Amino acid sequence: MPELSFDQNAAWIRRSEADLHAFTNALAERLEQGMPGFVEVDRKKDGFFSHQQHVERLVVHTGDLDYVLNFHGARVETLRARVVRGVVLKREELSLAQWLQGLLQDTATISAEMQEASQSLHDFLMQ
Questions:
Q1: DSSP codes, the chain
Q2: Across the strands, what pairs with 19?
Q3: Is the pTM above the cut of 0.85?
Q4: pLDDT 10s per residue in the chain (127 long)?
Q5: Quick one: which of 80, 14, 27 has its CA closest to 54?
Q6: Rounded distance between C-alpha atoms, residue 100 and residue 123, angstroms
Q7: Distance (Å, rounded) from C-alpha 61 to C-alpha 11?
Q8: Which burial class, exposed, middle or buried, applies to 80 when counting CB atoms under 10 A from its CB (0-12, 13-18, 19+)?
Q9: CA 51, CA 28: separation in Å to the nearest integer?
Q10: Is the separation of the CB atoms in 64 and 83 below 8 Å?
């Protein structure tokens, strides 16, 4: 693979920043709509007179674990925190890929539990 020049590297960094900005906004929107009550999103205006906003912080509550995404300009910080009664017992920094994988697994668990509860309630009411 040929080496990239400084200008090419800088262009990739700018493109990645724009992609990350769009990704976090789309992810926050999808999670808010798909999991109401489980998601908190903090947004910040892009400028004083701007109507545009971007995600500054995203938290997804999945039982004992909170998945936290903090957007800092050109980079994203992703954390998973073990929370008991509102107190953070453990916090671990994850790569974005690990964070997404963990979130996917935990939302699948929540979904299965809710489906089982719904089916049990249905069965009980139909007796």
A1: -PPPPHHHHHHHHHHHHHHHHHHHHHHHHHHHHHSTTTEEEEEEESSTT---EEEEEEEEEETTEEEEEEEETTEEEEEEEEEETTEEEEEEEE-HHHHHHHHHHHHHHHHHHHHHHHHHHHHHHT-
A2: none
A3: no
A4: 557 687 776 776 666 666 787 888 889 999 999 889 999 999 887 777 777 788 899 999 998 999 999 988 778 899 999 999 888 999 999 998 999 999 999 999 988 888 888 899 888 888 8
A5: 27
A6: 34
A7: 36
A8: buried
A9: 18
A10: yes
Structure tokens that stand for 27 in this block: 């992810």
Q: Are 74 and 13 in contact (CB under 8 A)?
A: yes
